[in-house]
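Hey, quick one: can you model this chain's 3D structure?
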Amino acid sequence: MGLLRTVRRSGWLISGVLALSLAVPACGGADSGGGDSGGGSHGAAGATPAAEVLGTPKPATGAPVTIGFISASASDSLLSAQFQRVEQGLQVALKYANQYRGGIAGRPIALFVCQGGETPAGTQDCANQMVNRNVSAVISTFTAQGASVVPVLTKAKIPYMSLSGTSTEELTRPGAFSLTGGFSVGLAAFAAYAHDHGVRKMAMLAIDGPAVLQAVNGIGGIVFRNAGVGFQTVAVPVGTADMTPQMQAAVSGGADAVSMVGDLTFCTSWLQAYQTLGLDLPRYIINTCIDPTTLKAYRPILAGSVMTASASTDAATADATLYGAITRTYDPKIDPDPAVSVGQSSGAITLLSFVNLFTGFTGDPTPAVITARLRAAKNVPLFLGDGTTYTCDGRAVPILPNVCSAEAQIGTVTGDGTVKDATVIETTRLFKP
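Sure thing. Here's the predicted structure for all 433 residues.
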């Protein structure tokens, strides 16, 4: 019997390892910050008038509920552009939530953005500012600095909610919550898919960084063992332009499938090495590989590769249609197709998935109340999740109690860089110690 258990079908995918990509020097992808001003050229996302999709206004009133977000959009790092896109998504989602969803408990949401620069010192300072501002909660789309933020917030009893946590503190410390399993669940999906497609041993080329290798070796070793598939990690030094020796070492070591984790530059070198060696092995990638430059240069290799994710942005879904209406109403420069404006849609996913937690809630959203609601969250819709929900009872990934969903989508990439008819699987069973 196969390990894959079909839940539903979906289209294009958001990377479930977005957060991990930030542990390396740069972040790439097919993200676009703009689109046509009319926003109607991307399928179902622009097919219905925005006012009709948004529905009846339900404006929030009264004292605002302040939610914190630690960013790096104003830094000179290579990540600043990605954070700028995320902030755009947060802001349009915020305007929609305040005007059409009644904010939180009828009160408007105020977003306090602190510039931490994605450095340990900067993000820790921002965490202290969150405490001094008495924010009700801190949300995060992704960060490589969770270890600097979470202890400060949880000590002050301020809940921290990440879309995709990566650090030990984000995934295990009480008071922190990760809506999706991110890279950990993505690895489990790779393992399940590999098992069901006859792979005996997979080799993952991973950028040589402590956080990355710890996750790959620790989580990868567990889920691949439980799936009955051999697993090998090949560390690649940062900045390696020619990965041919590492790719050859993986093949010589008996791998009959290869995978990778890293940013766009890393993926480009990985694809080049695969091409140079003339390999014909199953290849498993993350969506940082899907970029106009890589599609142009390596389309035959990308086509047919396997990609995993934690949320769907199929343009035909109700959430994708809503996202298109939100962007066209509040910032027409954002492409209304969430598959194109990936950075912005990840910001919207984070905020609106948080807002979904308060459907029907009429109390006072204090930090203690928000923490209690997160702990009690059961089958709360994940925005743009195509039916995926989150339940924060610690059972999704038993070894990582803060993960609220063990579902991931996986399928093969087409020639245009999209994934169609992906299978959604539940990976809890693969995390047995």
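One thing worth noting: The radius of gyration is 20 Å.
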